[in-house]
Amino acid sequence: MKPIEAFAVEHLMSITPRPPLVFVRGEGAWLWDHDDKQYLDFVQGWAVNSLGHCPPAIVDALTRQANTLISPSPAYFNEASINLAETITSHSCFDQAFFASSGGEANEGAIKLARRWGAAKGKYRMITFDQSFHGRTLATMSASGKAAFEPLFEPKVPGFSKATLNDIDSVTKLINDETVAVMLEPIQGEGGVNLAEDSFLQDLRALTDERDLLLIVDEIQTGVGRTGQLWAYEHASIEPDIMTLGKGLGGGVPLAALLATQSVSCFKPGDQGGTYCGNPLMCAVGSAVMNQVLQPGFLMQVSSLGAHLKDQLLKLSARHGLGEVRGRGLLIALELGRDVAAQVVDRALEDGLLINAPKPATLRFMPPLNVTIAEIDLALTKLDVAIASALRDG
Ligand SMILES: *Cc1c(COP(=O)(O)O)cnc(C)c1O
């Protein structure tokens, strides 16, 4: 066993404060660090490992594909990307896919596709939302409504106006002759698990139809079963024009997708590309993930696991006098009512539970979609102790 001091962490750029441990191994809902300490992981690579750590379905897909074909270049067709595009489009309202390696890249593609679609009419502006998160490229940071991004990397990419979630008038007011699209997350993940109401999504669909605008859903965090439906837009029974996927689609490997309906899918040769876009190694994993999530009963199970987690969190909240529990499926937040989320995260880590605090008073839970009831209950036991300790010490 190597002590933490033996790892030369100073050679990595410092992009975020990290706890003094190094993860070496994962299995299902569990992670092990350099000291062989075990953690129950309700972060899962940030809602990435839909099937948990190192699931056999992904290991098999990677191994099989790595032995067959890894990267022929996006200048040629490959079977794995064709298969994945067919699976996603046949289970959604979209007709065509473009694959990328990260969510930010997929959203960058969505912005470009919307601008391409609106170019002939001189339309390029997009309406996005306060507290939204769309990625860390310059354009997606500009699209994001994250306050901390505002002073960074000026000048921003122009053409983004921010409306207020669940306030349709705030959207209507921002529309002008140059507006091409409205883009939102059906549930704002990084913003603290804020739900776009179903009625708001329906109003947005009606408004964008009426004003000849595109409706773009960023389902990078909510897609592929996370909310108990395959896509979160299905809860509202709407059909968006463009959707982006990432995170859970790859189940832990770098895979993202841009989906569009036929009439909106208007890229011309030269508009879009990327060396690793649609590479078979990642697309084979995407198909393995989709195959599991599409098994009969899988999504129902996500819903009932989510209901159990929500239920237990509500009891815990009542016990400690905390705030609301919100979210859908297995994307759930607990409002603490005071700014102790960072302390709770620290205490939980000490006790072998990984959770995330998207805001100073908010905890977020993103277990694997195949987490067990026993694992949820164990997480709640550890959380109970962590919260009691954080509340006691302030
Ligand atoms: C994580 C996330 C992104 C960015 O994805 P990356 O893979 O980190 O580039 C964009 N939108 C949403 C909603 C996300 O949760």
Please provide a brief summary of the model:
The chain is built from eleven helices and 17 strands. It is an alpha/beta fold and 394 residues long.
Give the DSSP E fraction (strand runs of 2 or more residues). Answer: 15-25%
Radius of gyration: 21 Å
Secondary structure class reads alpha/beta
Q: Give the helix proportion (percent range).
A: 25-40%
Small molecules bound in the structure, each named once: pyridoxal-5'-phosphate
Helices and strands, in order, run as: EEEHHHEHEHEHEEEHEEEHHEEHEEEH
Largest sheet: 7 strands, mixed
Q: Let me know the number of strands.
A: 17
Tell me the number of helical segments per DSSP (H or I, 4 or more residues long).
Answer: 11
Protein topology:
Elements: E1 23-27, E2 30-33, E3 38-41, H1 44-47, H2 56-66, H3 79-90, E4 96-100, H4 103-118, E5 125-129, H5 138-143, E6 160-163, H6 168-172, E7 179-184, E8 187-188, E9 194-195, H7 198-210, E10 214-218, E11 242-245, E12 256-260, H8 280-293, H9 298-320, E13 325-328, E14 331-335, H10 341-350, E15 353-354, E16 356-359, E17 362-365, H11 373-393
Parallel strand pairs: 3-15, 5-6, 5-7, 7-10, 10-11
Antiparallel strand pairs: 1-2, 2-3, 4-12, 8-9, 11-12, 13-14, 14-17, 16-17
Helix pairs in contact: 2-8, 3-8, 9-11, 10-11
